């Protein structure tokens, strides 16, 4: 039974007792509804057909016709052998993590471009540069907050194999804590963008003074380069959207994996498979661990602990390996 899907359908009004015809009921399934359904991993084309056919028909008929969540099916079959279809489902989760991360990355790409254009236009006008970029920064931060509050918890829910309506109590606390942690990273990024702007303003000012003293036009070359979003420990400068790409991917994966772990704790399961995929650019640590079974608690006698794998370096930034619960006799 897919409670989260039925819950979304009920929320839309599609099942209302009001006197509506089939067309009117179907029309209640808004763009937002389809986005949410897509985020849960359903095949929307097929689901549109089903909901079109069952509009106005008894609820129990609809419930029987609703598809199982593809993720639910994937985790159920995970302990079976690695078949081509199994691999497809693993790709689905990976793709979903990437898609959710891409949605915020695209916003920051646009924002970064807007900031760059504002720098270009306003090197002579620090006040306007500040006010324009402040506005862009506020917008980006608001988008990051709503992305964290709306899009990413869906991954936790999927990982935990619970419905959105069950996202309360400890699960809700876990999601809130992770949101706070991730939002802090976006706040740090915002502060870094602010520092970058102030640096550009100060440097432009210095060059204007020198130009005035030498009685020539100021030379602003080099100030129009990339907007630094993050400086690595080695001092390497990462552009804003490159950094967000990493941040978003890592955060999305973390929501999924935390959901998986907490769902397993809740169900008193202990063994999880580290997703199997290995690609050309997969790092050595992930190659060592991909496809292996680990014990979440670390108490298993037969299997290494998840902590061993983490200590070895899996789940590094950019890594999209994730955990798949294994229903296995002896899983404690
Ligand atoms: Zn990896």
Radius of gyration: 24 Å
Tally of contiguous helical segments: 13
The tally of domains stands at: 3
SSE order, one letter for each helix or strand:
HHHHHHHHHHEEHEHEHE
- Kindly estimate the percentage of residues that lie in beta strands according to DSSP: 5-15%
- N-C termini distance: 25 Å
Low-confidence parts, pLDDT < 50 over ≥5 residues?
78-82
Q: Mean of the pLDDT scores? A: 87
Query: What summary fits the major beta sheet?
Result: 3 strands, antiparallel
**Class from helix and strand fractions:** mainly alpha
Tell me the total number of β-strands. Answer: 5
Q: What characteristics describe this protein?
A:
332 residues; mainly alpha; two-stranded antiparallel sheet; 13 helices; flat; binds zinc ion
Task: Describe what you observe in this structure.
- It is a single chain.
- The chain has 332 residues and is mainly alpha-helical.
- The chain has three domains: 3-67, no CATH class; 84-245; 268-332, no CATH class.
- 63% of the residues lie in helices and 5% in strands.
- It has helices at 3-12, 22-27, 31-39, 44-54, 59-65, 70-76, 84-122, 126-151, 153-160, 169-214, 240-267, 284-289, 306-312; strands at 228-231, 237-239, 271-274, 293-295, 323-325.
- Strands 4-3-5 form a three-stranded antiparallel sheet, with helices on one face. Strands 1-2 form a two-stranded antiparallel ribbon.
- A hairpin with a 5-residue loop joins strand 1 and strand 2.
- It starts with a helix and ends in a 7-residue tail after the last strand.
- Residues 78-82 have low confidence and may be disordered.
- Zinc ion (ZN) binds next to loops.
- Zinc ion binds next to loops.
């Amino acid at each position: 039974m897919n409670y989260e899907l039925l819950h979304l359908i009920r929320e839309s009004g599609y099942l209302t007792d009001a006197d509506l015809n089939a067309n009117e009921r179907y029309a209640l399934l808004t763009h937002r509804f389809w986005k949410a359904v897509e985020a849960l991993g359903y095949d929307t084309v097929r689901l549109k057909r089903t909901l079109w056919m069952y509009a106005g028909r008894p609820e129990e008929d609809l419930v029987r016709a609703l598809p199982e969540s593809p993720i639910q099916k994937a985790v159920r079959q995970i302990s079976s052998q690695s078949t081509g279809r199994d691999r497809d489902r693993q790709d689905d989760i990976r793709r979903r993590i990437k898609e959710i991360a891409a949605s915020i990355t695209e916003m920051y790409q646009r924002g970064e471009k807007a900031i760059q254009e504002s720098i270009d236009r306003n090197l002579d006008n620090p006040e306007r540069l500040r006010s324009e970029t402040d506005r862009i920064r506020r917008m980006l931060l608001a988008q990051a907050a709503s992305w964290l509050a709306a899009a990413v918890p869906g991954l936790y829910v999927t990982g935990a194999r619970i419905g959105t309506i069950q996202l309360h109590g400890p699960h809700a606390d876990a999601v809130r804590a992770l949101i706070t942690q991730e939002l802090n990273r976006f706040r740090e990024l915002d502060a870094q963008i602010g520092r970058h702007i102030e640096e550009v303003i100060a440097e432009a000012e210095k060059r204007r003074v020198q130009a005035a003293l030498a009685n020539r036009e100021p030379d602003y070359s080099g100030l129009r380069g990339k907007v630094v979003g993050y400086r690595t420990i080695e001092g390497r400068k990462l552009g804003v959207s490159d950094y967000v790409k990493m941040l978003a991917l890592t955060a999305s994966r973390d929501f999924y994996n935390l959901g998986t772990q907490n769902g397993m704790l809740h169900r008193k399961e202990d063994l999880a498979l580290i997703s199997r995929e290995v690609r050309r650019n997969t790092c050595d640590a992930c190659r060592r661990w991909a496809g292996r079974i680990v014990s979440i608690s670390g108490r298993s006698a037969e299997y290494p602990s998840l902590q061993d794998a983490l200590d070895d370096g899996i789940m590094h930034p950019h890594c999209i390996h994730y955990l798949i619960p294994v229903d296995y006799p002896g899983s404690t």
